Amino acid sequence: MIRKIIKINDSLCTGCGLCAEACHEGAIEIINGKARLVREHFCDGFGDCLPGCPTGAITFEEREAPAYDERAVAASKVEAISCRAGSELSSWPCQLRLVSPLSPSLDGAHLLVAADCTAFAYAAFHRDFMRGRTVLVGCPKLDPVDYTEKLTDIMSRHEIKSVTVARMEVPCCGGLERAARAACPAGVPFRVVTFSTGGKIL
Q: What is the pTM of this model?
């Protein structure tokens, strides 16, 4: 059918992502640094994305395009909500620098001491590593602290059942592993899982 639909001028697009945020239907995504209309049947033709574009890269055109599919849009939103509801994060905060050593969530915990990047590198991180564990997240390269003292304080105050360290293959993650090893009490099961930058378990 011929209908009004958005058009994105690739040469004007800076990839800022404001249009993707403004599109409530999820028709636009940023791919390789440029906005792309990835689901034509999700574009309702109302142009909520137009005023959000600072360079004027988005305009309307009339052309052959699939009809707007309101049911598909609604189903996509339900799926997105379901994915968010599937979070395995059991305590908050989870940033190691912010977690109180007195937090009751640490009592009898199976600890997951995770480098910041791991959850982004490994797609099933929530399901495979966070479920049933209390998560402590940090990055020894970005946080100007030695985690050893904090982790030792946490593990000496609570009866920790196990410690799993999730780290990337990059050298800077070694600081997180060393701190966790130094803090882990004798006899507590300890393991390290290392991820490649391509998201594989090594």
A: 0.58
Query: Each residue of 76-125: pLDDT tens digit?
Result: 765 555 555 567 888 888 899 888 898 888 999 999 999 999 999 988 88
pLDDT digits (tens, 9 = 90+) for 6-52: 999 999 998 888 888 788 788 888 888 889 999 999 999 888 888 87
- What domains appear along the chain, each with residue ranges and CATH number? 2-84 (3.30.70.20), 104-195 (3.40.1360)
CB 164, CB 112: distance < 8 Å: yes
Q: Are 49 and 23 in contact (CB under 8 A)?
A: yes
- Strand pairing category for 34-37 and 28-31: antiparallel
Q: Is the peptide bond before 93 cis (omega within 30 degrees of 0)?
A: yes
Amino acid 167 reads: R
